[in-house]
Amino acid sequence: MAQSVATALPKRVIGLDKLGVVIALIVLVGWFALPFVDFKPNRILPGEPRSIFAALPPLHSAILAAVLAVSIPVSALRTPTIFRLAMSFLALAAIAIYVGIAGYFLTPEGDKLVRIAPGAGFWVLTGAFALLAADSLTRLRLGPWPRITILVVVAIGLGALLWSGSWSDLSILKEYASRADAFWREGQTHVLLAFGSLVVATAVGIPLGVACYRNRRLRTVVLNVLNAVQTIPSIALFGLLIAPLGALAAAVPALAAIGVSGIGAAPAMVALFIYSLLPVVSNTVVGLVGVPEAANDAARGMGMTDRQRLFSVELPLAFPVILTGIRIVLVQNIGLATIAALIGGGGFGVFVFQGIGQTAMDLVLLGAVPTVALAFASAVILDAIVEMVSPREPAND
Hints:
Helix content: over 70%
Structural class: mainly alpha
Shape: flat
CATH class of the largest domain: Mainly Alpha
CATH architecture of the largest domain: Orthogonal Bundle
Order of helices and strands: HHEEHHHEHHHHHHHHHHHHH
Number of strands: 3
Number of helices: 18
Strand content: under 5%
């Protein structure tokens, strides 16, 4: 009898997690095959690769190696999701701390020319554990507030790391130290371009989307034109706006007085606005078309006018879809605003293109890293807001 009961019980077999196996292999490559940091005599010359064991004191390299070694089975096996999430954050914290220690350890005392840059192994390991964290968060199906809380905690952790000076000996922070004022000035310009064009596109795009929803012929024309605009490469559109805006500023001195010209922020703002219209208009139309007919019938039965139905029923129900379009626009514009530097529009792209011209990759990172971080944070926050305002599906009994 006991034998039959034992036979009936399912055997617990610890299997492999397919994505986790890929992550574990990536960790192994980043650990053993790629340099953790690059030792450069100055900011221009290529660096000499240094592995984890060559870049850190013995005790620190052993601790980091132990963290990476533990992460491999945790990632590759079907371990509890909360363990995987904790392991990903622990590994990311260890990598962030020890790359700063490597910068201090490898920099000769008093040498201001040497640059210690995060190597390919650092970026590969960071990407692998970020993927593990994202997969774990997806499996946990956290609500919007927990996701925002995690984002805030990560931001506070990074801020504390920067404030502590742990990364001061890394090359990207040395580039920042010599350009701190310019960094914040261009950062303000970048935010103004991305968010300013979004505000204008939202103010124009939502009413235009409502008009397209009401008039099918107008919808066809507007969406076809906006789709055609999206096929124009961003750098080409920036360039095409230089001549007309320059001519307009010459013809109307008042516009020139407020900063409108053929180069600078004006053509960048206009180009970003044009690119932003399609997602806002199309999502407004899709959201309004998706409003249940029963809701409109009930509103008509209550004696509501078309205007009342639009503002009290249709737009509130379509708002989550419209907000999704706004999210797409914001993330898109944060990236596209980098191109504005090519026409004198400023933004983080200034450092990206200066770095490319000087073959100084640390300067490129000074512009690229905050752009990526800003886009990622914006996406997480707006995704959470979309989920908050979306109607909840009734639970099944």
